[in-house]
C-alpha cells in the first residue's frame, strides 16, 4: 500500500453526527485478515448510531469506525493456522463475532454468543477504505454474485432467517415494515413458496418499491376486516403500532416472527393473544452461522433473489453525510457506499 492512512467514517464523540477523516490503517491481528473495502451499505442501525440513540450509547465506545455491511478484497492474512482464504478473495464479514467458548457457541448458536462482539459496533467496521475482520467470521463470497450485492448479504441473511423460521410455504404472509430487510423478506418469502405476500409501510416510496420486486399487495395500514387471516406475520418494523397490528392480524394458531427492535417497551395482552389465540412468537437476532449464509448464497446464485432491485442510491464514502440524509428520509431502498 502507498499510504499508512485511510478515509473512514468515525463515531468520534459521544454525540450525534460523525467525523469523516483520515485515520491509521490497522494491521490485522492474529487470526485476522486485512481487506480493501469495495462497497459498504448503510443499515437502519447506523442511523441510530449517527443520531446517538440510547441503544448506540450502550453499545459503542467512541472513537469507532462505523459500518457492518460490506465486501472487501483480502490483501493480507495473519494466521498460523490452515485457511481456505487467500489474498485476492472477495469476502464479507459476519457482524456477530463469536467467542467460540461459551455455552451458546458450544451448541453452535454462534449468532447469539454470550460474549459477542459486533463488527462496526463493538469494534471498527467497514465504512472505511480498509478493514480488519477475524478469520472465524470472514465469509468467502461466491464470484457469481455481483460485487455490490455482496455488500448487502448481511440484511438479506436476516430476512432469510426470519422467513425460514416463519415456515411460509403455502401461507398468506404479512410483512410489517418495508425497510431493506422487510423488502428482502418479501423476495425470500416468494422464493420459499408463500402464496400471498402483503406489505405494510407508511411511506409510499417503499410501498411502490415492494410492488416492483414482487409483493402481491401493499398498504399503509391493514383493514380490520383482514384481522385474523394471516398465517404468518413478519414484524420487521419494531414500531409499537405495527406490533399491535401483527398480534391482531395473525390467525388463531398462526405465527409471528419478531425482528424489528422497538424504541420503547411493548405491552402484550398475554391472555388474549398467546393463550386465547394460541399463537407462536419467534424472534431473530442475525443469521445462523453459517447455514443462513449458505442459503443466502444459493438464493443469489440461483437468481431467486435480486438485490440489485433494492439498491436505489449509491454514494462515495466521502459523501457519507449526503447518504445518511437519504437514509433518514426513508425515500430509498438500500444505500451503498464506495470508497
What is shown here, in short?
The chain is of the alpha/beta class. It has helices at residues 44-51, 54-59, 103-106, 147-150, 153-166, 180-191, 204-212, 240-249, 270-275, 291-301, 320-329, and strands spanning 5-11, 19-24, 32-41, 64-65, 69-78, 90-93, 96-97, 117-118, 130-134, 138-140, 172-176, 196-200, 217-219, 230-235, 250-258, 280-283, 311-316, 334-338.
What is the count of DSSP helices, taking H or I runs of 4+ residues?
A: 11
The CATH topology of the largest domain is what? Quinone Oxidoreductase, Chain A, domain 1
Quickly give the structural class.
Answer: alpha/beta
The top level CATH class name of the largest domain: Alpha Beta
What would you say the CATH architecture of the largest domain is?
Alpha-Beta Complex
Ends distance = 15 Å
> Helix share of residues?
25-40%
Instruction: Output the CATH homologous superfamily of the largest domain.
Output: Medium-chain alcohol dehydrogenases, catalytic domain
- List unreliable stretches of 5+ residues: none
Order of helices and strands: EEEHHEEEEHEEEHHEHEHEEHEHEHEHE
Characterize the structure shown:
- With 339 residues, the protein is α/β, with parallel strands linked by helices.
- The chain has 2 domains: 177 residues, Medium-chain alcohol dehydrogenases, catalytic domain (Quinone Oxidoreductase, Chain A, domain 1, Alpha-Beta Complex); 129 residues, NAD(P)-binding Rossmann-like Domain (Rossmann fold, 3-Layer(aba) Sandwich), CATH 3.40.50.720.
- The chain has 11 helices and 18 strands.
- The strands form 4 sheets. Strands 3, 5, 6, 9, 10, 17 and 18 form a 7-stranded mixed sheet that branches. The chain has a 6-stranded parallel sheet with strand order 13-12-11-14-15-16, sandwiched between helices. It has a 3-stranded antiparallel sheet with strand order 2-1-4, with no helix packed on it.
- Strand 12, helix 7 and strand 13 form a beta-alpha-beta unit.
- The chain is globular, with a radius of gyration of 20 Å.
- The model has no long low-confidence stretch (mean pLDDT 96).
Amino acid at each position: 500500500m502507498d499510504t499508512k492512512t485511510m478515509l473512514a467514517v468515525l463515531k468520534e464523540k459521544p454525540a450525534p453526527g460523525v467525523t469523516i477523516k483520515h485515520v491509521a490503517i490497522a494491521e490485522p491481528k492474529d487470526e485476522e485478515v486485512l481487506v480493501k473495502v469495495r462497497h459498504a451499505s448503510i443499515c437502519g442501525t447506523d442511523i441510530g448510531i449517527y443520531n446517538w440513540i440510547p441503544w448506540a450509547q450502550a453499545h459503542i465506545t467512541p472513537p469507532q469506525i462505523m459500518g457492518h455491511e460490506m465486501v472487501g478484497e483480502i490483501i493480507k492474512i495473519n494466521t498460523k493456522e490452515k485457511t481456505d482464504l487467500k489474498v485476492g478473495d472477495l469476502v464479507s464479514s459476519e457482524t456477530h463475532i463469536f467467542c467460540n467458548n461459551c455455552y451458546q457457541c458450544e451448541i453452535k448458536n454462534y449468532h447469539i454468543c454470550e460474549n459477542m462482539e459486533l463488527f462496526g459496533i463493538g469494534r471498527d467496521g467497514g465504512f472505511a477504505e480498509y478493514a480488519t475482520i477475524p478469520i472465524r467470521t470472514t465469509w468467502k463470497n461466491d464470484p457469481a454474485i455481483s460485487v455490490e450485492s455482496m455488500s448487502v448479504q448481511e440484511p438479506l441473511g436476516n430476512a432469510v432467517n426470519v422467513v425460514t423460521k416463519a415456515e411460509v410455504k403455502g401461507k398468506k404472509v404479512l410483512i410489517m415494515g418495508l425497510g431493506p430487510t422487510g423488502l428482502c423478506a418479501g423476495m425470500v418469502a416468494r422464493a420459499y413458496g408463500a402464496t400471498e405476500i402483503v406489505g405494510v409501510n407508511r411511506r409510499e416510496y417503499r410501498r411502490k418499491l415492494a410492488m416492483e420486486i414482487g409483493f402481491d399487495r401493499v398498504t399503509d395500514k391493514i383493514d380490520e376486516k383482514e384481522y385474523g387471516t394471516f398465517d404468518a406475520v413478519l414484524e420487521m418494523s419494531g414500531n409499537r403500532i405495527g406490533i399491535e397490528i401483527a398480534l391482531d392480524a395473525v390467525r388463531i394458531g398462526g405465527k409471528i416472527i419478531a425482528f424489528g427492535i422497538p424504541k420503547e417497551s411493548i405491552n402484550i395482552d398475554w391472555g388474549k393473544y398467546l393463550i386465547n389465540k394460541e399463537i407462536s412468537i419467534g424472534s431473530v437476532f442475525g443469521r445462523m452461522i453459517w447455514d443462513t449464509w449458505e442459503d443466502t448464497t444459493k438464493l443469489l446464485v440461483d437468481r431467486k433473489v435480486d438485490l440489485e432491485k433494492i439498491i436505489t442510491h449509491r454514494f462515495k464514502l466521502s459523501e457519507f453525510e449526503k447518504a445518511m440524509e437519504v437514509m433518514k428520509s426513508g425515500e430509498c431502498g438500500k444505500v451503498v457506499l464506495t470508497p
